[in-house]
Model the fold of this input.
Amino acid sequence: MAEQEKTSSAKQADIEHIRLAVRQLCAKYGEDYWLNMDRNSDYPSDFVAELTASGFLGVLIPEEYGGSGLGIAEASVVMEEICRSGAHAGVCHAQMYVMGSVLRHGSVEQKQFYLPKIAKGELRLQSFGVTEPTTGSDTTSLKTTARRVGDKYVINGQKVWISRIEHSDLMVLLARTTDRDKVEKKTQGLSTFLLDVKTAKNNGLDIRPIESMINHHSCELFFDDLEVPVDSLLGEEGRGFQVILDGMNAERILIGAECVGDGRYFIDKASAYASQREVFNRPIGANQGVQFPIARAYTQVEAAGLMVDKAAQMFDQGLPCGAEANMAKMLGSEASWAAGDVCMQTHGGFAFAKEYHIERKFRETRLYQIAPISTNLILSYVAEHVLDMPRSY
Ligand SMILES: Cc1cc2nc3c(=O)[nH]c(=O)nc-3n(C[C@H](O)[C@H](O)[C@H](O)COP(=O)(O)OP(=O)(O)OC[C@H]3O[C@@H](n4cnc5c(N)ncnc54)[C@H](O)[C@@H]3O)c2cc1C
Done:
């Protein structure tokens, strides 16, 4: 027991060390840097390069492949601190969880070839292609196909909202390799591919950026007889849904952590402004009508943080944590949105001025009630898998 306590306090010290180091790195990229990225729809290549060079983006990559070999608890703190600094972790978060698909399901050759390059920053794996315009949340009904022809697969179909593909060398793509009516379960017959984006672009893959509410670099993709070598297959043919599913817990926990970071950002801003802004000859924060909503939002964010910590701990211990990961993501996204709303209200009209940065973060954090999975689908997971209620879809 004493040994266990020592190990856990050492882990906690490491986490706090990482937190401080990420905070220092982010401080070099002030909020105006992110404002300009947003204004010009730019990609923060120098920030991502520094995050990679410092080893923070590779915390989950095992040491044998050049990463730090740490757990989701450490990775969560990296994401949380990026968001808390006023930055947008959506520019780089996918590499953390998409990399897991290669690590868990890649062949020895794929792992040895790609992972060290990803850890060094020579290759970016920032993109994953799952969502389609006509099927949305109903992933297993997707229509993109990959047909085996000799030593190649030929891919046809369409994807939507595929983020960062223009800033990524690699993409994990989900496509159907066996028709839906030829498999017993709808989760069968899907396969994942590790695609070389640069080679595919304009050789059967057409990429069209979507103008959107946040600077997330999301695109529509059109596949027209795109040929990829058979060794692009990631994992077993027909078991691609499992590959995607296996990465979902990590994804949910990391997004939950980002939301906690956003929430803490909003609370820091709101409480500071409420204490300093004077109207009617006293700080607005002296009014309970102003301070209570901030205190309430703080309470919600801290509660979400506990669920993120719990899910991360279970994940790192190898325990099943689907429910906790989903709940962490849902509670985080709702808490950060509540904190953002309070922060807007506290700042009054100034909240709308871009130079205050709040409206940008407010837009960014709204995404997480919709992507990568919407709140309703999380609720239906909890209802069905935790509460044993009937399946709703
Ligand atoms: C900025 C951005 C970036 C994204 N990046 C990526 C990416 O990189 N890769 C990728 O693959 N995808 C990406 N997505 C897509 C994202 O994962 C989907 O938008 C999300 O999963 C929801 O799918 P949908 O938009 O088709 O909504 P729909 O599935 O059409 O759902 C619309 C609404 O209906 C609700 N709903 C649907 N079915 C049910 C039901 N049975 N019961 C109750 N409610 C239901 C949903 O909860 C939702 O609120 C991104 C999206 C955005 C906006």
Summary: The longest strand covers residues 152-163. The chain has a mean pLDDT of 97.
